[in-house]
């Protein structure tokens, strides 16, 4: 008997049962306090933001924003907005193609030259995102080693960003020619031991510049010296240092740092520079190799030209207004000093131990974590702060190690001294409310506190 149901639509019991575990996994994640939910802004990014989805009769209540990476307050700066609009009117809103087809426009070329100048490198290459830049570099270098018949071993700081860890995992998958290892966080002795044991032809050491969840800094000089002793290349992802650190805002890897010390430098444009995208800076040979071999570069539509134009405007502000970096440092210092008094005797402290913090020069980076321990406690504090008009991220595993869930405070040059005072008052109220709870009471997991 004929049937109107196409053969492709008739599923066997086995095929119809695929991925029935997804609902269970989501339920487990929510019960563990690790479920992620998005916030939807109804305002530009800035020191004060409004959330969408409020009840129609509810009074709009902007929140003090301590959760963004807009460190210099440029995401809504009039100069960037105007530069982007002007370029959109001239070049349109889309590049229309990959860089290697015909999507590479004048603004892209100008931006690459300007980024090379800022970082003191011969050349720079734009990528659409920071994640893609890191995947692209590691993929290209692994491909080059394999094509040359050489082995490669990659050495990672254990707390590196997920894009770096994923890049190494993908590059070493399905081959014995590429291996990936992790060394203990900021532990040069552990790195030296691993480099000494390595028999690989090529060695690549990779580290964040400013670590995104802890706010501490890599020891660039120590890493470069270890690499020199073992003939390894050093790759630094300075996503959270660019625009914020350095005499000229060039980041943790200073403009005067020799190319041989840090052959591969990655930076992002969507944090301190207020726009979007990323770049890799290095030698002519490195950049040409990425153009030929980096699949995330080759097979991706170029970023819109108006985004590049806005970033060029941001770089002008970085050069012209060093006081933004000074203002940012002052706000972070104010927060740290306030927390020293506020948290005294509570068993809590910002970031790492005082010894580690001094060793890593982390005190004045714009990322300041308050380690709370459990997922439930971090979520409860985040929700309680939001009730008091303050927006702060609750960071939980797997983004950070188990038992180290935290509030991740981030600061902007646009924050005022009054903003920091309001934040400290809100923290004091949340801490007092927790102390007043019965010891047997455990924090309630609230979705209102959820961020990555």
Write down the secondary-structure element order.
HHEEHHHEHEHEHEHEEEHHHHHEHEEEH
Mean pLDDT: 91
The order of strands across the largest sheet is 3-9-8-7-6-4-5
Distance N to C terminus? 55 Å
How many E-type strands?
13
Low-confidence stretches: 7-13, 359-363
Number of helices: 16
> What percentage of amino acids are in beta strands?
5-15%
Helix content: 40-55%
* Major sheet attributes: 7 strands, mixed
Class from secondary-structure proportions: alpha/beta
Radius of gyration: 24 Å
Shape: globular
Descriptive account of the structure:
- The protein has about 450 residues and is an alpha/beta fold.
- The chain contains 16 helices and 13 strands.
- The protein has helices spanning about 15, 20-30, 80-90, 100-105, 105-120, 130-145, 160-170, 190-195, 220-230, 285-295, 295-300, 305-320, 325-340, 355-360, 375-385, 415-435, and strands at about 50, 65, 125, 150-155, 180-185, 200-210, 235, 265-270, 280, 365-375, 390, 395, 405-410.
- The protein has a seven-stranded mixed sheet, with helices on both faces.
- Helix 9 links the parallel strand 6 (about 200-210) and strand 7.
- Helix 3 (about 80-90) runs antiparallel to helix 12.
- The longest helix has 20 residues, at about 325-340.
- The relative contact order is 0.15.
State the main characteristics.
13 strands; 7-stranded mixed beta sheet; globular; 3-stranded mixed beta sheet
Describe how the helices and strands are arranged:
Elements: H1 13-16, H2 21-31, E1 48-49, E2 63-65, H3 78-91, H4 99-103, H5 106-119, E3 123-127, H6 130-147, E4 152-157, H7 162-172, E5 178-183, H8 188-197, E6 202-208, H9 220-230, E7 233-237, E8 264-268, E9 278-282, H10 284-293, H11 295-298, H12 305-320, H13 323-342, H14 354-360, E10 367-373, H15 375-387, E11 390-391, E12 393-395, E13 405-410, H16 417-436
Parallel strand pairs: 2-11, 4-5, 4-6, 6-7, 7-8
Antiparallel strand pairs: 1-2, 3-9, 8-9, 10-13, 12-13
Helix pairs in contact: 3-12, 5-12, 6-7, 6-10, 8-9, 13-16
């Amino acid at each position: 008997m004929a049937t109107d149901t196409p053969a492709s639509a008739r599923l066997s019991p086995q095929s119809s049962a695929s991925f029935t575990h997804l609902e269970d996994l989501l339920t487990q994640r929510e019960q563990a306090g690790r479920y992620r939910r998005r916030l939807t802004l109804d305002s530009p990014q800035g020191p004060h933001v409004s959330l969408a989805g409020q009840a129609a009769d509810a009074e709009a209540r902007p929140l003090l924003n301590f959760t963004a990476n807009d460190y210099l307050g440029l995401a809504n700066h009039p100069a960037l907005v105007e530069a982007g609009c002007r370029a959109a009117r001239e070049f349109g809103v889309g590049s229309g193609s990959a860089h290697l087809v015909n999507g590479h426009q004048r603004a892209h070329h100008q931006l690459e030259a300007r980024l090379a100048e800022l970082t003191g490198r011969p050349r720079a290459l734009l990528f659409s995102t920071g994640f893609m830049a890191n995947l692209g570099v590691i993929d290209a270098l692994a491909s080059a080693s394999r094509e040359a018949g050489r082995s490669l071993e990659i050495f990672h700081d254990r707390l590196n960003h997920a894009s770096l860890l994923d890049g190494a995992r993908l590059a070493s998958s399905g081959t014995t020619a590429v291996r990936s290892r992790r060394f203990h966080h900021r532990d040069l002795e552990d790195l030296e031991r691993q480099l000494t044991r390595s028999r690989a032809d090529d060695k690549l050491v990779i580290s964040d510049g400013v670590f995104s969840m802890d706010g501490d800094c890599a020891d660039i000089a120590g890493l470069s010296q270890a690499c020199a002793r073992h003939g390894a290349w050093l790759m630094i992802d300075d996503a959270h240092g660019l625009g914020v650190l350095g005499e000229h805002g060039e980041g943790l890897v200073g403009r005067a740092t020799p190319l041989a010390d840090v052959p591969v430098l990655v930076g992002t444009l969507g944090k301190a520079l207020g726009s979007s995208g990323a770049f890799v800076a290095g030698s002519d040979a490195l950049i040409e190799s990425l153009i030929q071999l980096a699949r995330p570069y080759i097979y991706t539509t170029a970023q819109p030209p108006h985004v590049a134009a806005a970033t060029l405007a941001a770089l002008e502000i970085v050069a012209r207004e060093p006081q933004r970096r000074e203002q940012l440092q002052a706000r972070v210092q104010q927060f740290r000093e306030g927390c020293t008094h506020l948290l005294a005797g509570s068993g809590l402290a910002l970031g790492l131990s005082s010894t580690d913090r001094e060793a890593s020069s982390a005190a004045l980076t714009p990322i300041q974590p308050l380690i709370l321990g459990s997922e439930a406690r971090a979520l409860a504090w985040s929700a309680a702060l939001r009730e008091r008009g303050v927006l702060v991220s609750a960071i939980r595993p797997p983004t950070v190690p188990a038992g180290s869930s935290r509030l991740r405070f981030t600061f902007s040059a646009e924050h005022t001294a009054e903003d920091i005072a309001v934040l400290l008052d809100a923290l004091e109220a949340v801490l007092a409310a927790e102390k007043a709870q019965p010891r047997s009471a455990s924090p309630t997991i609230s979705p209102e506190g959820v961020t990555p």
